[in-house]
Specification:
single chain, alpha/beta, Rossmann fold, 8-stranded mixed beta sheet, 4-stranded parallel beta sheet, 10 helices, about 20% strand
Length: about 350
């Protein structure tokens, strides 16, 4: 009897081990953010410290992960994402590329703060050199809060990263049961748990209760199809805004500081106050790349062509918001993109 029980136990253990080894291996890279935040009071969802909960603790509260994947966890950083740096972008992108080059890693999940998630996601979308899934997720409520949204978002992110249909889609964002493309997603609320939307084209699909469904495909080039790479140096690109009564002081100061590019958050269809437009035209004549985006939040900035852009030497950002336009402009300048014609082609492509 004892022998039979022992044999049965050994058989079950071996079977469990075989089943576990068949699961995909997903690397979870933690960078901090609200998802790793904590406050003294469980009802406090704003007065907390971001990035203080480690990756192992984040994983421990989602035991269902063990049924989805074999997890490889790393703490890459512990920052509030409002303080994201170019150096950390470099570190994160290089680490992801190293992991995805390994045969035993099937995908990557990055836990991130919400403030700059859309910028990091788009940067990785253009610089990751693999078709394996990369999924970013985050939370609007700290880990210590009642009804914290981080655990479910993390579970869904791993679910998406482990799903076969996620391969080749570029970098994705899994948030509040939706799957977004890194190019399209933006943060649209300061507090709501459905803070991330893709306002111009909508989400790629959804994830819920272990089910993943993509309703459209990513069309523009990304990852393996993108020409960009992560280097040690970043071209200096800044953002200015156009608004009632704005002066040219900021533009002139940036040009004097030696910036290589300026993205302008224009009004409406990327329109620019006359005083700032003249300053930007002067900057363009000195070789500074000028990209017109919009502060509106959705829609396209149409190229004005001969009416303005061709004469002034400006580039249209299309549907990219100012922050993503800055990411693309930095990457384009880093690979030698110069002149408004070449840069416009880059913005039309990516």
């Amino acid at each position: 009897m004892n022998t039979s029980t022992s044999s049965s136990t050994m058989s079950t253990t071996a079977s469990d081990a075989t089943a576990a080894s068949a699961l995909p291996r997903i690397a979870v890279l933690a960078t901090g953010g609200t998802i790793a935040g904590a406050a003294a009071d469980a009802t406090n969802t704003s007065g907390y410290q971001a990035g203080v909960v480690g990756v192992e603790q984040l994983l421990s509260v989602v035991p269902a992960l063990s049924a989805l994947a074999r997890i490889h966890a790393e703490q890459v950083a512990s920052v509030d994402s409002k303080d994201m740096t170019l150096a950390l972008w470099t570190t994160l992108a290089q680490r992801i590329n190293t992991l995805l080059a390994a045969d035993d890693i099937d995908g990557v999940v990055v836990t991130h703060g919400t403030d700059t998630l859309e910028e990091t996601a788009y940067l990785l979308h253009l610089t990751v050199k693999s078709d394996k899934p990369v999924v970013l997720t985050a939370a609007m409520r700290p880990a210590s809060a009642l009804s914290a949204d981080g655990p479910l978002n993390l579970l869904n992110a791993v679910t998406v990263a482990a799903h076969a249909n996620s391969r080749g889609q570029g970098v994705l964002v899994a948030f509040n049961n939706k799957i977004h493309s890194a190019r399209d997603v933006v943060k649209t609320s300061t507090y709501a748990v459905d803070a991330f939307q893709s306002p111009e084209v909508g989400a790629l699909g959804w994830v819920q209760d272990g089910r993943v469904e993509f309703q459209r495909q990513v069309v523009r080039p990304h990852t393996l199809g993108a020409e960009f790479f992560i280097g040690d140096k970043w071209p200096h690109v800044e953002i200015v805004a156009s608004y009632a009564g704005v002066s040219r002081i900021a533009v002139d100061a940036l040009v004097a500081a030696g910036v290589r590019g300026i993205v302008v958050a224009g009004t409406g269809n990327g329109s620019i106050h006359a005083s700032v437009q003249q300053a930007l035209a002067d900057a363009a004549s000195q070789g500074v790349a000028i990209v017109r985006s919009s502060r509106v939040g959705s829609g396209h900035v149409m190229r004005n062509g001969a009416a303005a852009d061709d004469v002034l030497g400006f580039v249209s950002a299309g549907s990219l918001n100012p922050y993503k336009a800055r990411v693309l402009l930095m990457l384009a300048l880093a690979v030698g993109g110069t002149g408004p014609v070449a840069l416009q082609k880059t913005f039309d492509t990516y």
